[in-house]
Predict the structure.
Amino acid sequence: MSVVGIVLAAGGGTRMGMPKAILTYRGEPLISRAVRTAFAGGCEMVCAVVGAEVGQAMLHAEAAGAFAVVNAAWVDGMGVSLLAGLDGIELVAPDASAALVMLVDQPDITPAAVAAVLSAQSDPADETVLAAASYEGARGHPVLLGRAHWSALRPTLHGDVGARAYLQEHRDELILVPCETLADPRDLDRPEDLELPG
């Protein structure tokens, strides 16, 4: 049993002016940084969901050690990308007990934050775990989805909402892991965000 990271990196980055997956930030493409962080935090495998600029994004992801899954419907939003990631894990790592979801445009999520969220799964074989990082009490990423939740989660994945609705519906089961001292969850959405102090 293992936890597989899912890096959602398929979007076109309309507000940024280019796909964020291939954007170089602090010396490396964002997708490479996210994959590296997932591995360093304890994921045994990483699935990178790519879409826009698929060739470059896939090369960066695979060079960092991930296996890539192409979401041809990436314009439909994050929900479809998460679905593609879960499908990819089913094919490549059918014994995975959980998936850890990260966003490519949060470069200051640290391996320590990944490890903290993974620690919510006290038994590596526990497929019922449902956990998320929290920042000053607000739910954020990474999010840990035990396999037992995947079948019920799938029908809720559409548009750009990802797992948000499912997590809200199952908030009584959700373990929130405080990560405000471990990571910065800010998104890189626009070119001016690249100038923020790091």
